[in-house]
């Protein structure tokens, strides 16, 4: 049976830099390991979050298991204060899209160091 834990794989050109990027956005580092000369980082929005991002080295995976490297997943993060988060990301020099209001929610996207787009929505 499935449970509430969910891990989402992201592939990065530089796992260390990707790890630092997500931490600069407020994510908590769960683990950072070296496996066969490659790094793997696991992060979450908090220590108790049951959803984790697991970042693998794209080149390592392409070399050792090319069939598993897929395009980036489409992720929508939720925020209780979208405008504050938007300002924080801009302050961190993260590439962000324009904020749009859809009904009562605000939505914007941002880009990580590998050019992957993510969406944030909420109040």
Automatic annotation (TrEMBL):
Family matches, as InterPro entries: Glyas_Bleomycin-R_OHBP_Dase, Glyas_Fos-R_dOase_dom
SUPFAM superfamilies in the cross-refs: Glyoxalase/Bleomycin resistance protein/Dihydroxybiphenyl dioxygenase
Top-level taxon in the UniProt lineage: Bacteria
Keyword terms: Lyase
Domain Glyoxalase/fosfomycin resistance/dioxygenase: 8-118
Molecular function in Gene Ontology: lyase activity
Transmembrane segments: none
Name of the protein in question: Lactoylglutathione lyase
Origin species: Candidatus Enterococcus ferrettii
């Amino acid at each position: 049976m499935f449970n509430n834990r969910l891990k989402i794989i992201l592939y990065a050109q530089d796992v260390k830099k990707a790890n630092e990027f997500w931490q600069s956005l407020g994510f908590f580092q769960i683990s950072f390991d070296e496996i066969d000369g490659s790094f793997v980082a696991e992060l979450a929005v908090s220590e108790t979050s049951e959803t984790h991002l697991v970042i693998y080295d794209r080149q390592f995976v392409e070399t050792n298991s090319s069939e598993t490297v897929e395009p980036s997943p489409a992720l929508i993060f939720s925020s209780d204060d979208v405008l504050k988060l938007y300002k924080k990301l801009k302050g961190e020099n993260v590439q962000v899209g324009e904020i749009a209001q859809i009904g009562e929610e605000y939505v914007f996207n941002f880009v990580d160091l590998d050019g992957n787009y993510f969406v944030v929505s909420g109040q």
